[in-house]
Automatic annotation (TrEMBL):
Annotated TM spans: 16-33, 40-65, 77-99, 142-161, 203-225, 237-258, 288-313, 334-354, 397-417
Keyword Transmembrane helix included in the entry's annotation: yes
Name recorded for this polypeptide: Maltose/maltodextrin transport system permease protein
High-level lineage: Bacteria, Bacillati, Bacillota, Bacilli, Bacillales
Keyword entries, A-Z: Cell membrane, Membrane, Sugar transport, Transmembrane, Transmembrane helix, Transport
Source organism of the structure: Bacillus salitolerans
Domain ABC transmembrane type-1: 199-418
Chief localization: membrane
Cited function: Part of the ABC transporter complex MalEFGK involved in maltose/maltodextrin import. Probably responsible for the translocation of the substrate across the membrane.
Amino acid sequence: MSEYINENKLNRHNPTIAMILSILFAGLGQLYNRRFLKGTVFFIVEAAFLIAFLDFLNIGLWGLFTLGEIPKIDHSIFLLIQGLVSVILIGFALALYIYNIKDARKDAIDRQLGKKKPSIIEAARSAWDTGFPYIFVTPGLILLLFIVVLPLTFMISLAFTDYNLYNSPPRNLLNWIGFDNFVSLVSIPIWKNTFFTVMSWTIVWTVVATTLQIGLGLFLALLVNDPRIKFKRLIRTFLILPWAVPAFVTILIFSAMFNDRFGAINRDILSHFGVMIPWLSDPFWAKVALIMIQTWLGFPFVFALFTGVLTSISKDWYEAADVDGGTRWQKFRFITLPHVLFATAPLLIMQYAGNFNNFNIIYLFNEGGPAVRGQNAGGTDILISWVFDLTFETNNYNMAAAISIIIGLIVAGFAIFQFRRTRSFKEEGNI
């Protein structure tokens, strides 16, 4: 008789049946398991979600695939945004739906094993203990999705449409065109010439300007850290002063100083040698000026960073090197440099990534100029400033979005590759 009762209980709380019921509608599996409060909550949540968002999701998904059907009535941009929001809402709903199914199955298995049904207070306490991290992470995750992920996916979506000045809603409907924008970057002459020219200059700008500011900062830090140097605090204060001045103020001052006609560099310095350099009107000299300005702006931070690291290196290492007959170069190569790079490598990598997208100096100095014949970008435009011009000057939103994706892939790929090779991000070990 007891075996019959136990078998009847097993059949009554079959995990498969609980899962099927939860798949049909959230909460039914919990009600089947006699978890009435939890089942009611799941049931109400799904019912409320369907009532509140069913029409919104229907229009959103339709608009995401079609981008509208009637010009001047359907707005492709609004439909695209509504579609992306719908995808996010569906993602939340699916996560809760899957949790409901797994919970129903787990409850049914516990009932089969004869585990005691927890009281409401015990269930609430257990949910609080296990879900504490998720409770506090969820609001931030929601904000992240709508503040970061949604605009990012919207930009990525525009790269696969024909959204530009001559085809903009609501007058016209947008169309999905696949990878045509990316193909145009490397096939249509004006786009091809501009893209590869700007890309080359962006790489040169990033490598040269960042390496110079790091090299200058390291050199000055080593110099000031030398025991023979006096008045270290005063020297460090003067070297950090450029960092204290807002960057945009410094850039605007330098822009005036490098002016071809009335700038102080040409008029008060180079004029004594009979030289007048076209800093703003010639692309080559404009690039040289930008690299020098960025070196001036960037070295104080690197200097401060390296100074702090150098003071933490034990003097015993250098004394041991002196005993072994090590030269200054050997001590720098095998003691100072490895220690400095180990401690600062992630921040130095971010310096390169930051200069790759350093829009401020390019725009404030001469707005990416001067103009170059046969290209739709200025002579000193880097990729990010070119994207700005395409967006706000010529309204080529689709091409700007395509280039933005390329920028993101380059920066992310470089950062991931370098971080994985950096010992600072690996298990701590001996230098």
